From TrEMBL:
Species: Rhodocollybia butyracea
Keywords: Transferase
GO BP: any one term: cell wall mannoprotein biosynthetic process
GO terms, molecular function: alpha-1,2-mannosyltransferase activity
Family matches, as Pfam families: Glyco_transf_15 (PF01793)
Family as reported in the entry's similarity comment: Belongs to the glycosyltransferase 15 family.
UniProt protein name: Nucleotide-diphospho-sugar transferase
Assigned GO CC terms: Golgi apparatus; membrane
């Protein structure tokens, strides 16, 4: 009797384990498919939403700032900027090859490379073979690259573990003499790949409409990426600027420029065909849970 009871109990236990495992497998499978299904469904809804115009009209250009030189004839007053080390050479060449192929081979904007130390002859020679545009190399002063001596390095290192590497530690690079002639710059990073033909000049677009970074945010031109920021990287930001809330949305502009750099943005139709993109639209970050694009669309249209 005891043996039979133990057998029944064991059977029930195996049944429970089997059911639990089955449910777990279903859940994991659904989790994998959920993002792709959500992406396609939301894109279908969004693609049927009419375009909206900005409530901020483009007005006449004010007088040019005396601190800026006149625009370069035939194109905007702009440059392409790389903050890189000699060890980044292969990633730099990959990014340059992509930018030149899809954009700069037509517009020939100058390149400016900045480093904490002198670039090697090998670095310079390899970079020069990637473009027909002018190239300049410079060294960022230590005070603009490294932290001041009075910073407690131990405490800073502890805080850096919670934040995004030293991305913002070179915040004064724009003061470098090589960048002073320019009004706009496009900062390129190593190991970035672009997927679409950029058939217009973003610099010219900004200059013709007299837009700076903050004014661009009012324009209906779309986003390249709309990531949700990690809260631990901005622990004291909102308290410091005296606001009540922060939705953690981190947006980068120009929806029609498809690219990949750890995450991938792939333009949807009709931009995908118009710009001859080669990326996989299903894998775009735009409509996944850690994207803010759906919030932005809802803000504009009142619909998801």
């Amino acid at each position: 009797m005891a043996l039979a009871s133990a057998f029944v109990t064991g059977s029930r236990l195996r049944l429970i384990v089997f059911l639990f495992s089955f449910i777990l497998v279903l859940y994991m499978g659904f989790s994998v498919l959920r993002d792709d299904i959500r992406s396609l469904a939301i894109h279908h809804l969004y693609s049927s939403t009419p375009n909206t115009t900005s409530k901020y009209p483009i007005t006449a250009r004010p007088p040019a700032s005396e601190s800026l030189p006149p625009p370069i004839p035939g194109k905007a007053n702009a440059t392409l900027v790389f903050l890189a080390r000699n060890s980044d050479l292969q990633g730099v060449l990959k990014s340059m090859r992509s930018v030149e192929r899809h954009f700069n081979s037509r517009y020939k904007y100058p390149w400016v490379f900045l480093n904490e130390e002198e670039f090697t002859d090998e670095f310079k020679a390899d970079v020069m073979t990637m473009t027909n545009a002018s190239v300049q190399f410079g060294v960022i002063p230590a005070r603009h690259w490294y932290q001041p001596e009075w910073i407690d390095e131990a405490r800073a290192e502890q805080g850096a573990r919670q934040c995004k590497n030293w991305m913002s530690s070179m915040q004064f690079f724009f003061r470098h003499p090589l960048l002073q002639p320019y009004r706009y710059y496009w900062r390129i990073e190593p190991d970035v790949e672009y997927f679409c033909e950029i058939n217009y000049d973003p610099f010219d677009y900004l200059e013709e409409n007299n837009k700076n970074l903050w004014q661009v945010l009012t324009m209906n031109i779309g986003f390249t990426i709309t990531l949700v920021e990690l809260h631990r990287t901005v622990l004291t930001l909102w308290d410091a600027v005296k606001s009540d809330t922060y939705n953690l949305c981190h947006s980068t502009l120009f929806n029609d420029i498809g690219y990949q750099h750890s995450t991938m943005h792939c333009p949807q139709q009709p931009l995908f065909l118009k710009n001859s993109c080669t990326c996989n639209r299903v894998h775009t970050i735009d409509y996944r849970q850690h994207s803010c694009l759906m919030k932005y669309n809802k803000m504009l249209t009142g619909r998801w």
